[in-house]
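[STRUCTURE TOKENS]
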Amino acid sequence: MVCVALLSNPKSTGNRQLLPRVRSYCANHPDIFHYEVESVDQIGRAMQMIAHVKPDVIVINGGDGTVQTALTELYQGSYFQEGAVPPVAVLPNGKTNLIALDLGIRGDPIKALERIVDIAKNGIEEHVVVRELIALSDGEANSRPVLGMFLGGAGLADTILFCRNRIYPLGLSNGISHFLTALAVIASIFFGVKGKYIPPAARPVSISLIRDGQLAGRFAVLIVTTLERLLLGAKPSGAGRAGRLKLMAIDHSAAAVLRVLYASVLGRVGSRRMQGIHLEHGDMIRIEGENSSVILDGEIFQSHDGRPIVLKSTEPVPFLRLAA
């Protein structure tokens, strides 16, 4: 009997060293169904095969793109009967691991997999949590949404792309790469420095929260998420209302950035309104701007030719959290 179905993408960066250990572990545990894909295009077929073995838990082992595509196929592909989709766990892999961290899955991936198998064998009920997902589309009725849990836009998207395209190729560790990116952002926002190794200035963007107003301007940070907490531990007022997307936007100004950094040190982000810091909920969010980029769980999407990026929340779906 299969208790865990493990979906791995050998081509994700983290699996270059991890996958041999994963294969060895699975070879010694016949109750794990391990399916490897060569590209994200094969994930639909993988989910079809996983549905046949009826696992108690589905584990995703890959980068951000693998996780995003797997979630999209799992909840848009109708491979499982309604209400019978197993909870999902994500091994700590890739550059950010935001979903894994939210689920309490960190540290060595093999130890995390061992813990997941143990939970699957001894009862998952106390470890199942529900999360809404972000459904991203262009708003057209016939478009198939892409699902994820964390979206970065405006200046934050530009910063992520800068780090990915300019800093990571230098071959430095993730910690040093992120530190250099932070220095470049500080130079850009606080001192107006421009250049090849400086992130571009944030472009104007319009954010519409249906029935809840509109924000417009240049933002150093734009986050939409369904995770429990936003960047810097902020929670919008009224947190906990079901089915609502959480939004955080910080104006592209030194004063606003300093204000939010100071409040985060004191643990007071979101405790009161602060100029230049916007914390909101929305049933539906539209993001519009000339070639405005957003990054949903590591994958890039862009609004163009008058077609906005439209975000909605899904119905709650089950995930496996290691800490009960």
Residues 239-243 have pLDDT under 50 and may be disordered.
